[in-house]
């Protein structure tokens, strides 16, 4: 069975990118108090300003979560994936590798910070996945509002935490029965957790791998 995740060129590329992510700093973040940071993280109106200040930080998924994304997409035979919060493209590379090993497909990502979009595209080209991925630049509430596959197999939520529920609502009618939703740092989105964990919400959901929430659309 082909596994591009653990072979060249992707494996050494991911090692390099994770190292760069670990070394990144943000002077802008140092000037924000913990209380103000928490307020901005949960704001539904100031998220663009907040994440704009964090443009130097990679904010990647962990290595374990990246592997989990590959396993879930590969194991379910995913062909259509949507990602909210591309950043520098580390999670995108894991998902694109699964699409490649599944025989192809389409990954639509969204990232509002232009410098991150440019770098993510460079990383995807270096890994050999540019043909599988479209990164839409701008506010995801707009960029992901249309022109999507009729059915979505996997949704990754890893952008502004206050918007997890809004992005899910945009995708919901297209999520096929059995589609998976992976929400990173889900503990920072209590309203989203309440929704997917509600018996009446149409999902089966479980906390997984630290603060990752793994949910399945029931149909």
Automatic annotation (TrEMBL):
Single GO term (MF) = O-methyltransferase activity
For this UniProt record, the keywords arranged alphabetically read as follows: Methyltransferase, S-adenosyl-L-methionine, Transferase
Domain of life according to the entry: Bacteria
SUPFAM superfamilies attached here?
S-adenosyl-L-methionine-dependent methyltransferases
Give me any GO biological process, just one: methylation
From which residue to which does the signal peptide run? none
Keyword S-adenosyl-L-methionine attached: yes
Keyword flag Transferase: yes
> What InterPro entries does the entry give?
SAM-dependent_MTases_sf, SAM_O-MeTrfase
What PANTHER family does the annotation carry? PUTATIVE (AFU_ORTHOLOGUE AFUA_6G01830)-RELATED
Q: What name does this protein carry?
A: Methyltransferase
Q: What is the lineage of its organism?
A: Bacteria, Pseudomonadati, Pseudomonadota, Gammaproteobacteria, Oceanospirillales
């Amino acid at each position: 069975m082909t596994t591009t995740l653990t072979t060249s060129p992707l494996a050494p590329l991911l090692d390099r990118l994770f190292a760069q992510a670990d070394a990144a700093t943000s002077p802008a973040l140092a000037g924000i108090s913990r209380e103000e940071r928490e307020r901005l993280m949960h704001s539904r109106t100031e998220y663009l300003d907040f994440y704009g200040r964090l443009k130097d930080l990679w904010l990647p998924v962990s290595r374990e979560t990246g592997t989990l994304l590959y396993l879930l997409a590969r194991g379910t035979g995913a062909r259509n994936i949507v990602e909210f919060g591309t950043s520098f493209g580390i999670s995108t590379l894991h998902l694109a590798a699964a699409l490649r090993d599944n025989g192809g497909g389409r990954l639509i990502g969204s990232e509002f910070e232009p410098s991150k979009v440019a770098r993510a595209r460079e990383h995807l080209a270096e890994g050999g996945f540019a043909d599988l991925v479209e990164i839409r630049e701008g506010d995801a509430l707009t960029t992901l509002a249309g022109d999507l596959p009729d059915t979505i197999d996997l949704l990754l939520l890893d952008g502004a935490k206050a918007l997890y529920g809004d992005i899910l609502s945009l995708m919901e009618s297209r999520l096929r029965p059995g589609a998976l939703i992976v929400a990173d740092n889900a503990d920072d989105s209590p309203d989203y957790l309440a929704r997917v964990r509600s018996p009446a919400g149409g999902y089966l959901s479980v906390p997984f791998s630290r603060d990752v929430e793994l949910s399945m659309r029931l149909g």
